[in-house]
Fold Response regulatory domain-containing protein.
Amino acid sequence: MVCELAAEALHDEGYRVLTAADALEAEQILSHERVDLLFTDIDLARNTNGLTLAHRARCQRPDLPVVYTSGGCGGLSESEAVCDSVFVPKPYLPSDIVALTNDILRRAPSPHHV
């Protein structure tokens, strides 16, 4: 539910939003689509977690901005998260995610896919 609200808010802001049901689907999207920002929950369904997903994504794209979220932890240590990532605790307002995304991607002049 939270994912859908954030995705809708980003779409309404003009972003092309690609969502995945789990980390495997996210990895497929990352390998086939141009993604400008990875927004991932730390606690993903089934096969892996958002920390592993972000590390794998950064192996392919070292410059990929990463935003983590979770309702079950108070934050991330530097050793857990990828370098220069952002953590947003749940609950959050979709407008906060839009503002953060705008701030992160402001410097990138390409079409944005979140």
In short: Helices lie at 2-12, 23-32, 50-60, 94-105. Residues 94-105 form the longest helix (12 residues). The chain has one domain: 2-105.
